[in-house]
């Protein structure tokens, strides 16, 4: 397969929070992989920045260890790793004080692409933006990258947007939702907009409903105190699931450009109806003989925060009026799985008689694991015995279909960081999009808080509370099984 990769210009990338968990686990191992793939221009430099007092060698050792621990085991060639580390330096800096800024300013080379990754808590965004300008480090070509969570609600998201807007134009701000960097998520757009097959059927006339599931097997573990202030709605639905919903539901943009795509996503969020409280099920995992409950993990025996949520929502526009979207996500469930399923309506008339049963087509898009797509088709059960029908999958697991090429494809962080360097914002969230998402989420959360609702308990390793099943069953539908 011939790949046409858009080249990246020489860059200086500063990672504020360069000693933190995200930098060590994702950002630097990702950059290392892109370096090995030949996508990082030789004269580029990466500067880690944090308060810790480290010299250059100390920081390189830290990153070497991180790549060994979190990088791909097949990418551990010592010589190449050493070459990559030669591009890395470190500045001890305080985002809230003056220490280190002069040194950083000296390291930034004029005329190159400059990107500043704010891999720190959002409370430091304002300090960083202000000091980058005060010390003449950022200019109108600079880019800043910020992480989720982007705010806790509409008000705090607006405040963050305001702080960033004081120093940077919207076209310089790259808000990461790493789900958008996943290969399959982009494939979702390719499937929809590069094939004529689905588009005529992609509406409420032919689609019965759409399900989006993001299930995790992990609990909240050591992040309990942090997670307890957030919950599944804020941590997963407001960003990742909403982004998936937008991509599946949006109108075809006129071209695959940042504003064209983001304008269409924004229209979807704005068309979302408020959610009926009866269409929301929240849950918390219970203790087992060996493992703690959600409330144990959160350190609050009376916590009302959800570790699971399922809800049904509607999009009020011509395309989707009448087609429900069911979203669910939770922790400590049966399996780790992210999947979107488009369930088409039954054929309008059964020519094979009642005994052939009800059958419908489905298009399942798996984001993880085993990225791929399955088209559920109805065919004749082979052999004698009349016209019995069965549903069979037309399966395309990308790893099987594309072989090694998929293994070498960049992971979400790698792709997104390279897109920052290319100046392509298509896969990043725009400020108004994030605010619109909070604008839909806030009243839902306020509603259950006002009603004092207690999440339903569910068993570890299950598919969530029984009521989540009922949410579908009441409508004569069922969730796709979360497969182990
Ligand atoms: P972390 O492990 O706590 O790291 C925070 C980093 O910020 C450290 O390098 C710390 O180093 C630095 N820092 C803190 N205060 C500073 C200051 N005043 N001046 C300069 N540097 C300072 O956090 P993280 O998990 O990497 O997360 C970073 C951001 O990414 C957060 O906003 C988080 O919500 C988001 N995020 C993280 C993940 C993940 O998987 N970890 C996933 C999605 C989003 P010093 O203490 O030495 O200064």
Mean pLDDT across residues: 93
| Main sheet makeup | 9 strands, mixed
The small-molecule ligands in this entry are: NADP nicotinamide-adenine-dinucleotide phosphate
- Strand percentage, roughly? 15-25%
Report the C-alpha radius of gyration, rounded: 24 Å
Give the structural class.
Answer: alpha/beta
* Secondary structure: helix percent: 25-40%
Please tell me what the overall shape is: globular
Tell me what the CATH architecture of the largest domain is.
Answer: 2-Layer Sandwich
Tally of DSSP helical segments:
16
Number of strands: 15
Give, in spatial order, the strands making up the sheet with the most strands.
14-13-12-11-7-10-9-8-15
Considering the protein shown, what is the CATH homologous superfamily of the largest domain?
Answer: Dihydrodipicolinate Reductase, domain 2
| Quaternary assembly | single chain
How far apart are the termini? 33 Å
> Which CATH class of the largest domain applies here?
Alpha Beta
Account of the protein in words:
This protein has 484 residues and is an alpha/beta fold. The protein has 2 domains: 11-147, Rossmann fold (3-Layer(aba) Sandwich); 180-402 and 431-473, Dihydrodipicolinate Reductase, domain 2, CATH 3.30.360. Helices cover 35% and strands 20% of the residues. The strands form 2 sheets. The chain has a 9-stranded mixed β-sheet, with helices on both faces. Helix 1 (21-36) links the parallel strand 1 (11-16) and strand 2. Helix 1 packs across helix 2 (56-70). The protein is globular. The model has no long low-confidence stretch (mean pLDDT 93). The structure holds NADP nicotinamide-adenine-dinucleotide phosphate (NAP).
């Amino acid at each position: 397969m011939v790949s046409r990769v858009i080249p990246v210009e020489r860059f200086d990338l500063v990672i504020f929070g360069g000693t933190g968990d995200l930098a060590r686990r994702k950002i630097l191992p990702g950059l290392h992989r892109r370096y090995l793939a030949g996508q990082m221009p030789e004269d580029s430099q990466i500067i880690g920045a944090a308060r810790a007092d480290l010299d250059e060698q100390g920081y390189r050792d830290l990153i070497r260890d991180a790549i060994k621990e979190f990088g791909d085991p097949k990418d551990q060639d010592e010589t190449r790793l050493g070459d990559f580390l030669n591009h890395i330096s470190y500045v001890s800096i305080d985002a809230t004080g003056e220490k280190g800024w002069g040194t950083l300013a000296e390291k930034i080379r004029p005329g190159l692409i400059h990107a500043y990754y704010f891999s720190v808590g959002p409370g430091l965004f304002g300090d960083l933006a202000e000091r980058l300008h005060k010390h003449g480090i950022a200019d109108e070509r600079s880019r800043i990258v910020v992480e989720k969570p982007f705010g806790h609600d509409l008000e705090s998201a607006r405040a963050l947007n305001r702080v960033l807007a004081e120093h940077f134009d919207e076209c310089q701000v790259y808000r990461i939702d790493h789900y958008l960097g996943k290969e399959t998520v982009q494939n979702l757009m390719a499937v929809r907009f590069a094939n004529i097959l689905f588009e005529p059927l992609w509406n409420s006339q032919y689609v019965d409903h759409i399900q989006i599931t993001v299930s995790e097997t992990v609990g909240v573990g050591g992040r309990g105190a942090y997670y307890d202030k957030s919950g599944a709605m804020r941590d997963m639905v407001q960003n990742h699931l909403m982004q998936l919903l937008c991509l599946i539901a949006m109108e075809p943009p006129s071209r695959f450009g940042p504003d064209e795509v983001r304008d269409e996503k924004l229209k979807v969020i704005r068309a979302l109806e408020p959610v009926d409280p009866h269409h929301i099920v929240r849950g918390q995992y219970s203790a087992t003989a060996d493992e703690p409950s959600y409330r144990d993990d959160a350190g609050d025996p009376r916590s009302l925060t959800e570790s699971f949520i399922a809800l049904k929502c509607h999009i009020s526009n011509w395309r989707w009026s009448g087609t429900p979207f069911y979203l669910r996500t939770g922790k400590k469930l049966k399996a780790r799985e992210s999947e979107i399923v488009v369930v088409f309506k039954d054929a309008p008339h059964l020519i094979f008689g009642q005994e052939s049963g009800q059958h419908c087509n489905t298009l399942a898009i798996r984001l993880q694991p085993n990225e791929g797509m399955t088209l559920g088709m109805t065919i004749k059960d082979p052999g004698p015995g009349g016209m019995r029908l069965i549903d069979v999958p037309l399966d395309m697991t990308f790893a099987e279909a594309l072989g090694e090429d998929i293994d070498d494809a960049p992971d979400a962080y790698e792709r997104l960081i390279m897109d920052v360097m290319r100046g392509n914002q298509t896969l990043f969230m725009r400020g108004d999009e994030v605010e619109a998402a909070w604008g839909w989420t806030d009243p839902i959360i306020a509603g259950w808080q006002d009603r004092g609702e207690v999440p339903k308990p569910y068993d570890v390793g299950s598919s969530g509370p029984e009521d989540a099943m009922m949410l579908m069953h009441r409508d004569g539908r069922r969730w796709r099984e979360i497969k182990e």
